[in-house]
Fold these 2 entries.
Entry 1:
Amino acid sequence: MALDTMAVLAEPTRRRICDALRLRESGVAELVAALRMSQPAVSKHLRVLRDAGVVSSRPVAQQRIYRLEPGPFQELDAWLGPYRELWSHSLDRLERHLDNNP
Amino acid sequence: MALDTMAVLAEPTRRRICDALRLRESGVAELVAALRMSQPAVSKHLRVLRDAGVVSSRPVAQQRIYRLEPGPFQELDAWLGPYRELWSHSLDRLERHLDNNP
DNA sequence: CAGTTATATAACCTGTCTGGCATGTTGGCC
DNA sequence: GGCCAACATGCCAGACAGGTTATATAACTG
């Protein structure tokens, strides 16, 4: 469910990791440099992200390359679905208003 | 920013409140009954949601009617934007694959 | 096999968050 | 004005999350 996913993505550091991985997949050291944080802290966040399926890792020599997985983001998108009519209805009203007032 | 909004919406109880308010605006007592939780707990969550702009309240006699506000959900939708190409690209590849293998 | 690189895990501390109970506060009613 | 109803707020206890340092593991390297 998007339930757990939201909690995982709510953490600012983890979102920074996602922002970084959105540009290109990376090893841990690269993320550590980008985030200016201790390596264990980054590894812990990566663990959480991986357990939630937000990222996946593949070993390359001693490195582990992390990349984003689309699934959880799609879930989040789907969860947001019903809430979209909160503002799509407003847009409908705006359109009708403009139609009636040319 | 969507930053704080995500943390606010990550809380399961608060999401249940949002789910309830999505159907219809309600007073606190109604939410208390729906969530089977103590009234102070609900009021506190409503405070957090209101501070984040996720809900707004309007007084009606001694009641306070709460309703959802679209803003934060739009922010979340916007934040999700760049991540959408994670799976839209996959769909592109799938389409090309199907085009090339009729 | 010894040493080094790259990452994961363990132990610990601290701050924050959530829930409950008790107590304010505000608006209507007799 | 006194009382009740509907919420809000303060305070406390328990749980949990995130960071750091120290240590373990895995894979190359000579």
Note: The first helix of chain B runs from residue 2 to 10.
Entry 2:
Amino acid sequence: MRDQIIDLISTAANLDKAMVSDILEIPPKADMGDYAFPCFQLAKTLRKAPPMIAVEIAEKIGDVDILDKLEVKGAYLNFFIKKDLFVKTMIETADVDNFGSSTMGEGKTICIDYSSPNVAKNFHVGHLRTTIIGNSLYKIYSKLGYNVERINHLGDWGTQFGKLIVAYKAWGSKEAVEKDGVAELMRLYVKFHEEADKDDSLNDQARAWFTKMEHGNEEALDIWKWFVDISLKEYKGTYALLGMEFDHYLGESFYRDKTADVVKRLQDANLLEESQGAQIVNLEEYDMPPCLIMKKDGSSIYATRDLAAIFYRKQRWNFDKCLYVTGQEQKLHFAQVFKVVELLGNDWAKDSLVHIPYGLVSLEGAKLSTRSGNIIYAEDILLEAIDKVKGVIAEKNPDLENKDEVAKIVGVGAILFHDLYNQRIKDVSFKWDKVLNFDGETGPYVQYTYCRCASILRGIDYNADAAIDYSLLLDEEAIALLKEINRFPQVVKDAAEKYEPCVVARFAMDVAQSFSRFYNADRVNVENAALRNARAKLVDMTKRTLKDALDLLGIQCPEQM
RNA sequence: GCACCAGUAGCUCAGUGGAUAGAGCAAUGGCCUCCGGAGCCAUGUGCGGAGGUUCGAUUCCUCUCUGGUGCACCA
């Protein structure tokens, strides 16, 4: 149908088909006809006023059998396609495009580095963002046919472990760490900083311990390994709650024997220079501060390990892209590291290394801070949300089976959806009443809509294979819903291109809203079997679309809630 | 000081080089003896400011104001 329109216009206006196709890519406003042709795009090329062009083309096209009417409105040519033909095309296209598999990413590999918590630190509301966004990107790229490697680049190496060891030896105990886990490690870490503010020599001790770790000191490594194991166990609990997994836990420590190679490469390329006792790559030429490679005590730093990780990943997976989902405050760091890779003669670094920043999370307007106690842990948020859902279920649907399972799906879904609904880059001010609100633009609303679809289909006689009488779906609400559903394939591509899960989240919301209007306007369970079947087809398509869209966000759909 | 990011309705946020800039929250009023009321419908003086490019700018450019973040031995 779209092709027919393009034929019509290109013949009538004597224009290149590709050009007409491009112009038709601009989506028409919802109530402005089934296809709108914005002629102002041609104004420059043809040196005529847009309305003139519209009128001319309209006259040449005249009466065509697929069109209901043709209307010139300002600089737009609006095509009103015969509605039943339009509906038929929409349904058939969606059946293939929405629910078929994409081959767009076939043979391509994408590495996503996300979540990557710092060992021995609490997994708080800020870490939740990278985890949720990264997981959604994994789903989106997988849907497009890419092979995706999910990498958890744990912050399990670095000077902070020197600090922790010093603190543990001075103020900690085995019993306390075993009892309170990460919370105790966190306490020790905070204690260290308080003391180090008064006594700078503690920092030197910490560096010394880290240097011991780098040189394979057994005592240091035993303690370190213990801390890592304790932390990892807690993180995995949170991932399980979120329903997420990783393909690889390759923390910074994994690269500790690979940093020497990085240093050698840089030396060989003559990029390394000494500055204030440390080894750096000068990036002045690129308007950036130098990239620190080796500290004055000879130990590695995170940039070194990031470089090692890039080379390792490139060699192991030969990725087309490697994405880093971290806070926007690390933007400069990644710009520096990527530039260094490029300077080593790797042209691929330019396009394939991508930092995906997200905005800062604050708490009720104040900065997150462990020291002042202004912090919320990821697990607490999830559990709180699940609890709230239990309350709502008890009130609205007390007879529901598997309440706990549903509460988990809906509660976690609420948190995920809330986090993915806005653009990544926006700063987030965490507010309990927002997060725990389930009305309006929320995950539970979309899930609720899904449940309604499921409920309708459960309760009626519906033959999914019967031929549809398209002329029965010509009302405004049905067509609006169909148009919405048909956007799905493009939405997924846009989301992938922009690295923005919110595009999918917004889409899911739009579909849910369109469905609700349809639901209120058109009864599905009617006597007339043909009408019932036609509408049920729409319900079925909505249901599948919502499920697939939410799945791309890492959110599940209960059949009842 | 330099750099990066953001500024759209009371609040939280979508959106676009072009038709009348949209949702949700909050508020008020309404909705089917009928498929799930976590729903639907109605009510809106808003693109931080000033220039510029353009037939047309909320969108692109410059300056400016406000907020956030970063700027070597933390990650």
Note: The longest helix of chain A spans residues 218-242.
